[in-house]
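RECORD TYPE: inverse folding
INPUT: structure tokens
STRUCTURE:
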């Protein structure tokens, strides 16, 4: 895939739209584009300066395809670092496909997923974490994800990881100097200093891992289940939060039998919500299957919204539910506050610290629920601005680094030579350089870009 061929792909979405863009990249980009594009003035793109464009038409062997504006970028001042031409037609799926076909007939190779960005990486236009951030920017679903991806795009992860790598390099250099030139007047590496430096690095790595977990919740949403006995208002709450009539609401207990799912944005948090059948003993086999699904969903969700009916006394089923969930991240939702209260609130409060009173039917209390969830997830405390690692690949590199640092700590504790400690530290550094792409193998690079979409 790392040939020098000129590649082309449709870079806009494959759906009708105002503009459809075909990107061509490679040494022959202008020559190739000149075979399919004719400007109104008759000037050839090969004669254009970088950052200029022209209006004209695209053609194939059957004739005129569409009107088109062509932009020329000259190496190295382009996204990929190569010569690039962007042909912007009308965004009709048929039109752009046909225009792409014309480019391929003219000699371009269809670009593979992420190949433009891969070339940008290989040409030194961006580091690996910045390339990954391009993909995250495209798929960002909310402000947190977009903000994190943008700062990663601007190199925040690279700088953060390099900060730690530099700390490790400092330790490694000190050890090397001491072991390589024992006779010279070099400051001794004291046990104390080494222990302290390694502990500092460990702290940094552990914080990076913690911030990642928080960031992941903000970016991808948190798996959330709505649970409670029948008729407390779970489906009404689901519908209120999702803004649609997704779940059937009736006064007949046991209406919801399947798990109904919806992704919603609540305040600053994305919830991957599941409304379930109420958990209760039942003779109805369909409802029983729903209850089973509800229990499974309860087990694999992270956040639990346990709903109770404020207008009724706590039942044994309610108390069983409280027992089941009280040690997990849970918000107790006291619903139907528009009715007279009968529920034993103190009993719930003793077991579940986060309680929110709402009236799902009246649409009251969503803001309070939103901030209770934000608090419960401890999201407000995290600093989500700078240098949060972005994916499982990067997390694994940090984990590997942490393991090597722990080995170094153990080696020192067991009185092994400074050489042996140094080897562990050098390994730790390598893991971070794989993360940033400076020591990434071909396999790692291929893996990163295979997850991209075509045209990016
Ligand atoms: N008064 C009042 N009734 C509600 C409220 N929320 C839900 N209900 C009613 O309670 C009944 C059961 O609601 P539903 O959402 O189907 O409960 P589920 O079985 O837990 O999903 C329906 O008749 C709803 O209209 C509320 O906040 N106030
Ligand atoms: Mg229901």
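DESIGNED SEQUENCE:
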């Amino acid at each position: 895939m790392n040939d020098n061929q000129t590649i082309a792909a449709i870079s806009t979405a494959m759906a009708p739209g105002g503009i459809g863009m075909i990107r061509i990249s490679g040494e022959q980009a202008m020559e190739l584009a000149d075979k399919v594009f004719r400007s109104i003035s008759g000037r050839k793109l090969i004669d254009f300066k970088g950052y200029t464009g022209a209006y004209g038409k695209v053609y194939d062997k059957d004739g005129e395809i569409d009107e088109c504006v062509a932009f020329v970028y000259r190496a190295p001042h382009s996204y990929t670092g190569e010569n690039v031409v962007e042909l912007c037609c009308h965004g009709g799926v048929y039109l752009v496909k046909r225009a792409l076909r014309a480019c391929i007939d003219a000699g371009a190779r269809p670009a593979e997923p992420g190949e433009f960005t891969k070339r940008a990486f290989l040409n030194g236009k961006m580091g690996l974490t910045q390339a990954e951030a391009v993909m995250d920017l495209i798929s960002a679903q909310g402000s947190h994800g977009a903000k994190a991806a943008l700062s990663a795009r601007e190199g925040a992860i690279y700088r953060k990881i390099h900060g730690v790598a530099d700390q490790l390099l400092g330790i490694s250099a000190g050890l090397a100097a001491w072991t390589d030139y024992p006779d010279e007047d070099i400051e001794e590496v004291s046990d104390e200093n080494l222990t302290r430096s390694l502990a500092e690095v460990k702290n940094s790595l552990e914080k990076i891992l913690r911030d990642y977990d928080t960031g992941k919740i903000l970016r991808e949403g948190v798996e959330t289940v709505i649970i409670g006995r029948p008729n407390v208002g779970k489906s009404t709450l689901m519908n209120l939060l999702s803004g649609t009539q997704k779940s059937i609401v009736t006064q007949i207990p046991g209406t919801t039998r399947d798990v109904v799912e919806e992704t919603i944005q609540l305040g600053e948090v994305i919830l991957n919500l599941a409304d379930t059948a109420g958990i209760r003993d039942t003779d109805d086999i369909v409802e029983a299957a729903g209850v089973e699904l509800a229990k499974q969903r309860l087990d694999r969700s992270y956040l639990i919204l346990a709903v109770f009916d404020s207008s009724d006394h706590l039942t044994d089923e309610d108390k069983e539910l409280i027992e089941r969930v009280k040690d997990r991240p849970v918000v107790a939702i006291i619903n139907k506050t528009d009715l007279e209260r009968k529920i034993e609130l103190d009993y719930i409060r003793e077991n579940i610290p986060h309680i929110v009173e709402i009236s799902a039917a009246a649409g009251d209390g969503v803001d309070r629920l939103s901030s209770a969830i934000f608090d419960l997830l401890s999201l407000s405390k995290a600093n989500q601005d700078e240098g949060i690692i972005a994916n499982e690949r990067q997390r694994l590199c940090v984990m590997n680094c942490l393991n090597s640092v722990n080995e170094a700590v153990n080696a020192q504790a067991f009185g092994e030579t400074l050489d042996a400690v140094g080897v562990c530290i050098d390994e730790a550094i390598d893991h971070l350089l794989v993360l940033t792409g400076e020591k990434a193998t071909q396999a790692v690079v291929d893996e990163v870009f295979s997850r991209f979409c075509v045209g990016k």
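NOTES: Residues 228, 230-236, 249-251, 255-256, 278, 335-336, 338-339, 359-362 surround guanosine-5'-diphosphate (ligand 1) (CB under 6 Å).
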